[in-house]
Write a structure and sequence with these properties.
Blueprint: H1 2-13, E1 25-27, E2 33-38, E3 44-49, E4 61-66, E5 69-71, E6 73-76, E7 80-82, H2 84-96, H3 101-114, E8 116-117, H4 121-131, H5 133-140, H6 149-158, H7 163-180, H8 189-192, E9 193-195, E10 205-211, H9 224-237, E11 261-264, E12 268-271, H10 297-310, E13 320-324, E14 327-329, E15 332-334, E16 337-343, H11 376-388, E17 395-405, E18 408-418, H12 419-433, E19 441-445, E20 448-452, H13 462-466, E21 468-471, E22 476-479, H14 487-493, H15 496-521, H16 524-527, E23 531-532, H17 540-557, H18 562-565, H19 569-591, H20 601-611, H21 613-623, H22 625-633, H23 640-659, H24 667-678, E24 683-684, E25 689-690
Parallel strand pairs: 2-10, 7-9, 19-23
Antiparallel strand pairs: 1-4, 2-3, 4-5, 6-10, 7-8, 11-12, 13-16, 14-15, 16-17, 17-18, 19-20, 21-22, 24-25
């Protein structure tokens, strides 16, 4: 709540007018809807099908303070129940777009003959309450202006509705409408007709009440202008009367009401704060429910309006971004998680800070046309120059919010940074992802071979990568590891000791999960064979594109720059194993007619080296003698690469002798050794320089 209240302050300070909407006024659900027109006696006299929501159609609101009250639009069960076969037959006509009048008429007649009215006496009681619900709305909106006359008249007429007359009218209107213009019912037929098959969940039909003579008034009762008038009336009725203030210093009125719900992207509507008194934490200060942290209706409205503005779909990539969508990891589900970026000095058009955290969706690419992560920081820097005249000291609040369960959100992170820190973090992210030697390897996906070079990922991509565990020499991958959902934001923005600790912890926990596939990728160029990617993970190809970059990033944040670790013993051990592979491969070509074993020498020793480099070095010294002797004594043209390899082998061995073979491997050492094994060697050809031998 504090985060959204601060955002409301920033919007107010910037002069950005965000209309506060009472929480009881909500958009109608995206369901099929019909409109019933009432005359002065409350009798239904007209019927219309409402257009499908979206595609530029005006958004219709309704008053719905809770799940049991709604007016003047409310949900009902299907009006008829019909044989499933007949309903399916008509839906197939719609799906096939069959315009033959004979076929359509046959399907409609079949449906009409099998349909019987479905509303029960239980629904009659519910609808009779629903018809009078408008009176409760008028009681809560005591300050309505004269412009609300059509709505007040609709409330009066609705209270006069006779349920049985209303049901009869709906039945007749649906049947006659379907017979006259059946193709216009393709969106509504499922909601009007339930099925005899009890296993099929019935759809919901929305019914809107309207005045039959609405045109004599300034606005229809269901128009957006009318709901603006209702909103003003409801807000005016809740104005301060006692002078007491809530936790934010605003009027206390309304603090005992249930906390309003906010709707974050793809997360469902949930209360702003749980006040469930059975939760022990709510008794922490010997107070429970609304008394534990009193928030009046005025504060709630400010926060709701700010939350709606800053998480609006059109601001994706600017003020918010998805860190995770809803995905399954093992037996658990990761819920949608968003990062909200709120500058305390809010410009009318905020810079694309969201693009620093996550790739832009297709729709959000209108925010900034970005093809590579490395371009994002420049775009944001240019925007800052325009928004704040280059002032990089502007504080920016960064919050990470996730769906904790079906009824609650959870705040995972809330920190404040300067614009300068965020730009520097993005620059360091790019630098870290480039903190690796030249790498290239080959994979096969969907029976096609690809050569992969590492790319720089967005921070949000690290979650799906680190949740994977590679098994069986890189031929199987399982998404089983739980990864903190705020990790992308933390890893991007942390600095100093916190940055170091996060990087070391990730290397310690996750490098072992990836070593199977990294070892398997090592000899793919050498053997001119591809690692066949498992089909169980659709993102496996992209994960192998970004995996070395993430290792480089974690090493940089752990204090290991490429210029340093490439001269150190762990990296040299990896290079030595790679050279052993090359020498072994050349020996097989020269002596065994190109018949390669399933595993080359260095590849077979890498797992030993990752656990005990000394033991691996001893085994290598014994087993390489035969290949070394062959390469040294062979004078054929084909042995040139082997002799070149021997030269490099001597150089790396000498460097390793100076550094000493490590007797144990720490968290950064594993990553360095794996990168050393994957790193290519410069090889001069007649016309060009290749990076792998």
């Amino acid at each position: 709540m504090f985060e959204f209240f601060q955002t409301a302050d920033a919007l107010e300070k910037a002069g950005i007018n965000v209309r506060q909407r009472d929480a009881s006024l909500k958009p109608c659900p995206n369901k099929p809807r019909v409109i019933v027109y009432l005359n002065e006696d409350g009798a239904p006299v007209g019927f219309d099908l409402a257009e499908r929501p979206g595609n530029g159609n005006a958004m219709i609101e309704r008053w719905a303070p809770d799940n049991h009250k709604a007016f003047p639009t409310f949900a009902v069960d299907p009006v008829f129940v019909a044989e499933s076969a007949h309903l399916s037959s008509l839906k197939k006509v719609f799906k096939d777009n069959d315009t033959s009048s004979k076929v359509i008429r046959g399907a409609v007649n079949g449906l009409k003959e099998s349909a019987v009215p479905a509303w029960s006496e239980r629904l009659a009681k519910k609808l009779n309450r629903q018809f009078t619900m408008g009176e409760s709305l008028l009681e809560s909106a005591s300050a309505l202006s004269e412009e609300a006359a059509p709505f007040i008249e609709l409330v009066r007429r609705a209270a006069l509705i006779d349920y049985y007359q209303f049901q009869q009218f709906l039945c007749e209107s649906i049947m006659s409408g379907l017979a006259e213009f059946p193709l216009g019912w393709r969106y509504h037929v499922d909601a009007c007709f339930g099925q005899t098959d009890k296993s099929v969940t019935p759809n919901t039909l929305l019914v809107s009440l309207e005045l039959d003579d609405w045109h004599v008034y300034a606005y229809p009762a269901n128009s957006p202008a009318m709901f603006d008038i209702l909103n003003d009336g409801i807000l005016g009725a809740s104005a301060s009367q006692t002078g007491e203030v809530d936790a934010f210093g605003l009027p206390l009125e309304g603090y005992e009401a249930p906390m309003p719900k906010i709707l974050l992207p793809k997360s469902g509507e949930k209360p702003m704060r749980s006040m469930f008194s059975d939760v022990p934490a709510n008794f922490r200060y010997h107070r429970a429910g609304a008394d534990s942290f009193p928030v009046g209706s005025q504060s709630r409205l400010r926060m709701l309006a700010a939350a709606k503005w800053i998480t609006a779909p059109e601001r994706e990539g600017r003020t918010w971004a998805f860190l995770t969508q809803k995905i399954k990891v093992g037996r658990s589900e990761i819920q949608p998680t968003i990062v909200v970026i709120a500058p305390q000095d809010m410009p009318e058009v905020p810079p694309a800070f969201g693009a620093l955290f996550a790739p832009l969706s297709e729709r959000a690419k209108e925010v900034a046309e970005v093809t590579k992560y490395g371009e994002v920081a420049k775009i944001v820097a240019d925007a800052i120059s325009g928004a704040w005249q280059g002032d990089l000291s502007v504080p920016i609040n960064v919050s990470v919010i996730t769906s904790y369960d079906k009824g609650r959100y959870k705040l995972l992170m809330s920190e404040s940074y300067t614009a300068e820190h965020m730009l520097e973090s993005a620059r360091r992210w790019n630098e870290g992802c480039a903190n690796i030697p030249l790498l290239r390897y080959r994979v096969q996906a969907k029976k096609k071979a690809y050569s992969i070079s590492p790319v720089t990922p967005a921070p949000s991509e690290i979650i799906s990568l680190l949740s994977n565990v590679w098994l069986r020499s890189g031929t199987e991958v399982r998404a089983t590891r739980q990864v903190a959902q705020e990790l992308p934001a933390l890893l991007l923005l942390a600095s100093g000791q916190q940055e170091h600790d996060i990087a070391v912890a990730l290397l310690t926990k996750h490098v072992s999960d990836q070593e199977a596939v990294l070892i398997a990728l090592g000899p793919t160029l050498l053997r001119n064979r591809e690692l066949v990617l498992p089909t169980s993970d659709r993102n496996a190809y992209h994960h192998l594109e970004i995996l070395p970059s993430i290792l480089g990033l974690l090493l940089l944040k752990a204090g290991r720059k490429m210029e340093e670790y490439m001269q150190d013993s762990y990296f040299l051990v990896g290079r030595l194993m790679s050279l052993a592979d090359t020498l072994h491969e050349q020996y097989c070509k020269g002596v065994r007619g190109g018949d390669l074993p399933s595993s080359l020498l260095g590849n077979s020793l890498m797992r030993v080296a990752l656990a005990n480099p000394v033991d691996a070095f001893d085994q290598l010294a014994d087993r390489i003698l035969v290949y070394h002797s062959w390469a040294r004594t062979n004078r054929s043209e084909e042995s040139r690469l082997a002799k070149w390899t021997l030269g490099l082998f001597s150089e790396v061995s000498e460097a390793l002798k100076q550094k000493g073979v490590p007797d144990m491997v720490n968290s950064t050492g594993k990553a360095e050794m794996l990168l050393g094994y994957l790193a290519g060697f410069p090889r001069k050809n007649n016309n060009s320089t290749d990076t792998n031998a």
